[in-house]
């Protein structure tokens, strides 16, 4: 490959919102470094995406995800999506890599950066002679917990719901409880062992086979976990929070920008922003408890209620919110990073997804976490007990808890002070000379080297 042709990277996210967003931020960073980037969506997502905000110069390609177009891509169908991506999706990906060999529109691929949740994407690329790096979109603390699953099983520290201290995740013995461990789809209230967990953990450890693992985190937030992960990887890059320097997200839902003008009409730090991310679903009872708790705080609130989030139809929910008082604003999808940057937002009631956690951290907004599944359980423990930039509701959801935690997050100077300090530190991390910025530079060099 001629050294004058730019490096060409194929970026392949898992086809869900939280994965697409941060891999688009990564893409923007690679484009800034002068690379060619091809971004691989599923056909279904490509047809849903708002393309306006995509970085210029980005090439989009797609593979089928294997599900019928009208099939929901929700948390309830994650298992089906996984199965079809690992069969139909992976076969189409292999064919695509082969066809790119004789592609006259772009230089040959230098490497693939594949979502670390898809081991096949790494294996197939390497098999076809294309170097593959793995990118995990979640936190380093959750990564380490998944890596520790075999030990956790051996020690009998799963199943989860319990206050018992966990000894099986190195470096977290002092504060991690079983309730804080990552878990599979759905909230297993009965504590039954989730067989999916072993499969997920195995898939995650697979990144050790890739040329390197890239994490969207900063050493200042997760240094100890990063140090424990590094020996399992061929190389490790901690380059987050990516959106702070390269915001290039694209939504699968249409953003309701009208809430920005609504925020403009409110005083500084007087509004609670409520969003449970792209996958969480809640029961009608949980909706009612959240609503009553929020109303009882007396604060105005902006609430993201996705159309697929509560079984009850949207109009019934909106009516319930309207009846509860005029201080509420409901949207189906918000321009979240803009909302969190807005001076009117005082705290963030969130599920603790890793993107949301980083977005709040970068703006210094205190959080109240109600984790739904996967990495969110351990993220929220770090928010509440390690960084202490917010409060963790964990598995409890009733109006008194919502009211109490939200009030405290809105009013505590200590929480706000720590959140603010973390935001300051993260600004340094992503600025030239900072740890994340240096690791990004090292990553760019690493990819250039692959061409040689
Ligand atoms: C889940 C995981 O928990 C997360 O850690 C993992 O990396 C991806 O899968 P998700 O439920 O999508 O993620 O939450 P989160 O990681 O917070 O991502 C949601 C994204 O959607 C964020 O970038 C957020 O800014 C955006 N968003 C959310 C909006 O733009 N508008 C909204 O109204 C809500």
From TrEMBL:
Gene3D superfamilies: Glycogen Phosphorylase B. It comes from the Eukaryota. One of its GO terms (molecular function) is quercetin 3-O-glucosyltransferase activity. Keywords: Glycosyltransferase, Transferase. It is an enzyme of class 2 (transferase). Belongs to the UDP-glycosyltransferase family. This is Glycosyltransferase.
